[in-house]
Amino acid sequence: MTTSYIFSEIEKDLENLNSNLKSMVGARHPILNAASEHLFSAGGKRLRPAIVILVAQTTLNNNLIQSSHKRLAEITEIIHTASLVHDDVIDECITRRGVSTVHNIFSTKIAILAGDFLFAQSSWYLANLNNLDVVKTISKVITDFAEGEVRQGMIRFNFSISMDEYIEKSFYKTASLIAASCKGSAMLSAVIEEKQNQCYLYGKHLGLAFQIIDDILDITSSSQSLGKPIGSDLKSGNLTAPILFALTQSDELKYLVGQEFEDKNDLIKATSIVKLSYGVKKAKDLAEEHVQAAISSINCFKNLNQDKYHNLVLIGQYILRRIY
Predict the structure, then answer these.
(1) Which of 72, 185, 258, 319 could make a disulfide contact with 55, Cβ separation 3.0–4.6 Å?
(2) b/e 76-108 (16+ beta carbons within 10 angstroms → b)
């Protein structure tokens, strides 16, 4: 069974999600509406809503997933997209998923307003789930996003940061949403609290693995396949797992980072050093550890709903295979 099977199994749900997203975020103002249309037309794998749906299937033990699960999947994607709009402004990205970013097409002001609008829309739909526990769990994520951005901004070009600090920042920026949405999906299934928390841990470790692989791709991939310029993290001083591992091996890399790549060829040199070091392999090993931790977290569902449990295992494999 290939990892593509998981997405084909829930293809209809994801198709409905794509059409619903555009109608859910329709804005009265034509500029905001155009910005929203542009964002959701860019596509993407819709990994986060896919995980919400798969957790719902697993925790419901073969019962049909509810409309509230589908709505939570949509809310999760809106929150994620809103965070990307703001991230792109902060990081001064020109492209995302191979298309121009909102602030590059319109303006920085419109991009910030579009991100705020999407966060507001997600909050409205979240409140209408009429489940206070889910609202509390998901709304905390927006605070975590801000925390992650502040932390990242404060440690730019600081090669003395620890791997624990990197993981903590990655949790706030990426894993928090996946963890919370997994728990929220389990809450809507009305499983016991222990199983809700196990779904949270599954999402947390899956999210960390996803971020680590993303950080590897920023070094090893091509601009065309990545949908944005390679080395973007390194250029902005965001020191990720492969870079941090490589720094322990190379004084030259420390020098280049310390000089903030002041010469035009410094970034190319630094990227080459990271590729030739053991940084990429060690980062991949770290991602694999988190995928294994994610799978271990949901062992309680293995005998309860084996087929759907296996889909959650395959998601972890899919995340790791992104680097091939």
Answers:
(1) 185
(2) bbbbbbbbbbbbbbebebebbeebebbbbebee
